[in-house]
Specification:
By secondary structure, the protein is of the alpha+beta class. Helix content is 23%, strand content 25%. The protein has five helices and ten strands. The relative contact order is 0.22.
Amino acid sequence: MNRLTLEILEILCEGLGLEPRYFCGGLCENPSLAAHHYPPCPQPTLTLGLAKHKDPTIITILLQDKEVEGLQVLKDGTWIAVAPIPNAFVVNIGLLLQIISNGRLVGVEHRAVTNSSIARTSVVYFVYPSFESNIEPAQALLKGSNTPPLYKSITCREFRAKFFQKGPKVEEDLQ
């Protein structure tokens, strides 16, 4: 997974105009792996598997259940189901990459919903920086542009503490 992560981040760097290895050296050194199981729910409209949020990561790499939809993304005020594609990953931009890109890339607001008759399991690989890493807009994106930094500098440790305390409202604190 580390090699896949670095390849994805190098492609994102190329698109942003950053050095290909920008994320090496602390910014992707603290990954976490989780499996999420959602049992069937006879009345799925009465519950959410996971409420709407943006991940507090650089990126999140998701392997969806092969047969059951559950991931939804918010686009223009409408929730859209992300259909599983066999042998493919979903890559979500996280809040930390939103900060580093100075808003050029935006964290994906998403949620997980349950199914009335079929259980679903997904595997998630969260890409976090080391706790001591400084998270701020990349200087290379600010130099020579008329765009000021949209986000304050913060350590990953401070960011995560604020995120788990304030949830989605953490974005307002960072601007």
